[in-house]
Structure formats: C-alpha cells, structure tokens
Amino acid sequence: MGEPRIALAGAGYWGKNLVRNFHALGVLATVCETDLNRHADLAKLAPGTKMTGSWKEVLSDASINAVAISTPAEMHAAMVKEALEAGKDVYVEKPLCLSAKEGGTLVKLAKDKNRILMVGHILWYHPAVLKLKSLIDAGELGKIQYIYSNRLSLGKIRREENILWSFAPHDISVILGLLGEMPDGIQMQGGNYLHKNIADVTVSLLSFPGGTKAHIFVSWLHPFKEQKLVVVGEKCMAVFNDTEPKDKLVLFPHGVEIGESVTTVRKAEGKPVELEQGEPLRAECAHFIECVKTRQKPRTDGEEGLRVLKVLQQCQEALGA
Fold first, then answer.
1. Residue-range domains of the chain with CATH
2. For the segment 260-299, what is each residue's pLDDT rounded down to a tens digit?
3. d(CA 93, CA 8)
4. Phi and psi for 10 in degrees, rounded to 5?
5. Residues in Cβ contact with 201 at an 8 Å cutoff, skipping those fewer than 6 apart
6. Which of 44, 127, 183, 298 has the smallest number of CB atoms closer than 10 Å to its CB?
7. Which of 150, 225, 140 is closest to 178 using CA atoms?
8. For residue 310, what are the contacts with CB-CB under 8 A and spacing of at least 6?
9. What pLDDT digit, counting tens, does each position of 105-135 carry?
10. Positive/negative CA dihedral, 275, 69, 59, 53
C-alpha cells in the first residue's frame, strides 16, 4: 500500500504533538477534537488537514486506514474497541486502557480483526533505551542485579488518574522489556496529599524470577523534574538521564573485589555512550506508519501494553486503593 491516511482523536496537551509529527510525516488526514474552539490553532499546526468534532464521522470514513487515540485514559477502551470494529489499525497513547480484563479483550479483538494495535510506550523509541537494551542483551553489564527509576516533577497534576497510572507505565514498560520477564512479587507504598482519593506519590517494589529487583518512584509533588533510570549489573552500571541535554546514557564500569578479609570497591569514571539522534515521538509515529504499511508487529504492540497493564493493576491492588 501507499502512505496510509491517519486520523488523530484528541488533540490536547499531548495530542497536539502527535498532530505535528503525523502531519510532518505526510499521513495526517483528519483531526478529531471535540473542543471546536481549538480547531483554528490545530489547522495552523497541520495545514490542509480536515478538522472534525465527530468520532463517528472518523469511524465511518472508509478512506481512513488507521487512527491514533490521545484522549483521557478512561476513554481508551471504548474508542480502541470501536476503531478496531470499524476495521482501523490503532495507535493508542498509554495506558492501553484501565483494566487488564479490558486490555485482554482488545488484544484478542485486534488479532481476530487482523488489525495493528500499538501502544504509545515512547521510551522504546528513545535511542538511549534501545542502546541500553542492546548492551544488556550483549552481556556488557553482566547479570542485572537491581534497577531503579525516578520519574518526578511538580505537576501536571491530573484528576482522571493517579500518579501511578499517569507516570509509571513508561518505567514499567522499560523494566519489563530490559529484563524480558514479568515480576513475581510486588509491594507498594503511596501517599494522597492534594486529593484524598488520588495518589500523588508512589513507590513500587518489583521482584523478578531471575533474582533482579527494581523500584519505581513517581511523583508530581517534587521541586524539580527528574527522569532517571539506573541499571546495576555485575560488570557495569548504566545511567539513563533523560533530563540531561547531552550524554543521556552513561556507563560506569565500577567493580567490587571480595577478598578473604576485606571487600574493595573500585570506582571508575563514567563513559558516555554515543547515541543516534532523533525525536523519540517522531520515531514512534514513523514506526506505526511502517507497521500499517508492512503489517509487521509493532515494537510496543497490544500484548506489550497488556503486560504493562497487568503490572499496573497489581501495583494498584497492592496500594490498596
């Protein structure tokens, strides 16, 4: 097939970035945004693109091959289902939906309809994460012992979902992908400070069958922005710091020598890893287009989204709310 025609549903805070990228890639046919007051600005962002406030109009348009969904998370399940049933390939922002049961239904529906289902776990399109995965797979870090992730900022505070569902999908996705296994133990701690029913801060502790442990600290009550992933291996440690303007991935070949009577820690200078350049969101959008054209399985397909969803749900249950 030639270039697909894609419709985007939901062009708000994050969706407008998808408008920009799909338009630049030459595939954006329609933007569906229910706030009609935003249409004029969106038309400037994507000249020549049709604007509509009707989701039903998008679903019934036979010229639309695929849809990208960037609406609030509680709308994902119904919209993904409707799009798949209308014969469209689907890209949906994380999380896939808000329950593992619904997620399983969507994954099965996509398979039954022979449709592409891709979830927007953007870090798997980040050059640093892809490089880190290749280094781990090649044994450069040795056996992975511990992983920790911090995703912290002051705002943007949501009322549709708590901090776990808003921030942690990124880190869960990366940790599951780096280790290639699901956790067999989960502990949680969190705090509700701005709203009695919505967690603003959570710490998730994950244990894996292979012996690796990980923790994920997410908060929107933090004095500064931090997005950092640390992977501790037997031979080497890696730090992915996404708030750094350069040297986002650094390896630390520290060593520990255990003698009969004394243990010596050998510290080494960090070595920045050279990375390919490029905007992760542009790469993610381009990957979806390629999957629509070639029918290849997306790197972050529905099944990957479902694995993340299952861990999120277990975390939420362990949080007790």
1. 6-121+281-299 (3.40.50.720), 124-277+311-319 (3.30.360.10)
2. 676 667 787 899 999 998 999 999 999 999 999 999 999 9
3. 11
4. 95, 95
5. 163, 190, 191, 193, 218, 219, 221
6. 44
7. 140
8. 100, 103, 182
9. 999 999 999 999 999 999 999 999 999 999 9
10. negative
The β-bridge partners of 301 are 118
State yes or no: cis peptide before 95, omega within 30 of 0.
yes
116, 122, 138 from 75: Cα distances, Å: 19, 20, 40
| Amino acid present at 184 | D
pLDDT per residue, tens digit, the chain (321 aa), is 678 999 999 999 899 999 999 999 999 999 999 999 999 999 999 999 999 999 999 999 999 999 999 999 999 999 999 999 999 999 999 999 999 999 999 999 999 999 999 999 999 999 999 999 999 999 999 999 999 999 999 977 777 789 999 999 999 999 999 999 999 999 999 999 888 888 999 999 999 999 999 999 999 999 999 999 999 999 999 999 999 999 999 999 876 666 667 666 778 789 999 999 899 999 999 999 999 999 999 999 999 999 999 999 999 999 985
The contacts of residue 294 (CB under 8 Å, 6+ apart) are none
Contact 71, 9 (CB under 8 A): yes
| Sheet containing 50-52: order of strands | 50-52, 28-32, 6-9, 66-69, 89-93, 117-120
Radius of gyration for the alpha carbons in the chain, expressed in angstroms and rounded: 21
Backbone angles phi, psi at 257, to 5 degrees: -110, 120
Q: Which residue has the tokens 């890639």?
A: 25
Q: First-to-last CA distance in the chain?
A: 47
248 vs 264: CA distance, rounded Å: 29
CA-nearest of 321, 8, 95, 312 to 183 is: 312
